[in-house]
Amino acid sequence: MSLDIVDSHIHLYPGSEVQSLAWYTEGHPLQGQHSVQDYLEATKELPKVSAQKLQGFIFIETDRKSHLRTEAGWEEPLRELDWIKRVTDGRPRTGEGHEPQHSQLCLGIVLWAPVPSGAEAMQRYTAKVRERAGSTWPLVKGFRYLVQDKPPGTMLSAAFIESLKWMGRNGFAFDLGVDARSAGLWQLSEALEMIEEAHKGVSENQRPDMRSRNQDGNPATEPFMKWKELMVRLASLPNVYMKLSGGFSEINALPHQTEQGDWGFAARDELVQKTQDWAGRWLRETVAAFAPQSILYGSDWPVCNVGGGGNQVSWLNWWSVVGNFVQENLSKEDQAGFWSGNALRAYGVI
Questions:
Q1: pTM over 0.85
Q2: How far apart are CA 74 and CA 196, in angstroms?
Q3: In what side-by-side order are the strands of the sheet with 140-144?
Q4: What DSSP character marks residue 344?
Q5: Which has the closest alpha carbon to 205: 246, 173, 171, 175?
Q6: Which residues is 214 bridged to in the sheet?
Q7: pLDDT tens, position by position, for the chain (350 residues)?
């Protein structure tokens, strides 16, 4: 049984287009280019420690500058499509950090979309995406609109719900990320209500798939129990998948490494175990709430580099944390689904 890996959550961007990123500032921890070659550098230690192989990844949009006022606000996200199309077509520009042989690694694309603008805007936007994507169009599997920095009520507007139903009717996924730690548990509660509303009045096969990355770093008993309750309710809804991803953003940063084994004060395995011990409470409740067929592996590269020890080790560190956990808690068959099959099914790759 293959345990090969489909990384369901990575971001890529060329150095020539960093000024188009909405969050980008000089000196930002993620400044500079983050390319396919950089990603492969981050994963290169895997064959030394495991028989698992990297099968490919799902590209997730990187929050390019955008607005909802006019169609002009769609241009930078569409330029991002142009960029990832160069990767999937195997036609790199000089210095972009990918080669023709890397074209098969991208198994699916999740783009920004004007979700709060309603179904009619989604239809117009998707028509532009399809035109610009050309031969890459079959790889466009879903859309994302970041809500963790938006005011309460954003996810519950009639237009937002209308867009989700439109995605369901047209076979697209919606990638959802909420930040219960920084913004508050109201985000997770509102996300739950949003999904319930999106499922009303539609047939089973038209319900939009939700790929979620929930973040909550607060171990206090009352918030944790509320989080647990909301997760159980979320898991009970149809077509909802949960990524085990983004954990390094929620903990005290691991010491930076330039290569494996250069921590002088503690072995890597010891620090990975400490991280697993910290994250275990949330991992256990997530796996208990969601069916094994509904949880996905995601590295959140390169964001994982910020708290995970740096590009030479962070991908492997997170792989180790969740890998140890799923090996102890899932059957071999369910492990195979976690590492690849669930992502391929959730994004309609197979």
A1: yes
A2: 28
A3: 5-10, 54-60, 106-112, 140-144, 173-179, 209-215, 240-244, 295-297
A4: H
A5: 171
A6: 178
A7: 678 999 999 999 999 999 999 999 988 989 999 999 999 999 998 998 899 999 999 999 999 999 999 999 999 999 999 999 999 999 999 999 999 999 999 999 999 999 999 999 999 999 999 999 999 999 999 999 999 889 999 999 999 999 999 999 999 999 998 877 777 788 889 999 999 999 875 443 343 444 455 554 455 567 788 888 999 999 999 899 999 988 776 666 666 655 444 443 355 677 777 777 777 888 889 999 999 999 999 999 999 888 666 777 889 989 998 998 999 999 999 999 999 999 999 999 98
Helix (H) or strand (E) holding 54: strand 54-60
> Residue 310: CB partners within 8 Å, gap ≥ 6?
256, 257, 258
Closest Cα partner for 221 from 229, 232, 212?
229
Q: Are 6 and 58 in contact (CB under 8 A)?
A: yes
3-state helix/strand/coil string of 182-247: CCCCHHHHHHHHHHHHHHCCCCHHHCCEEEEEEECCCCCHHHHHHHHHHHHHHHCCCCEEEEECCH
Residues in Cβ contact with 308 at an 8 Å cutoff, skipping those fewer than 6 apart:
248, 253, 254, 314, 315, 317, 318
Q: State the alpha helices, DSSP H only, in the chain.
A: 36-43, 46-49, 75-89, 119-133, 158-169, 186-199, 221-235, 268-289, 304-308, 314-329, 332-336, 342-346
Q: How big is the chain, counted in residues?
A: 350
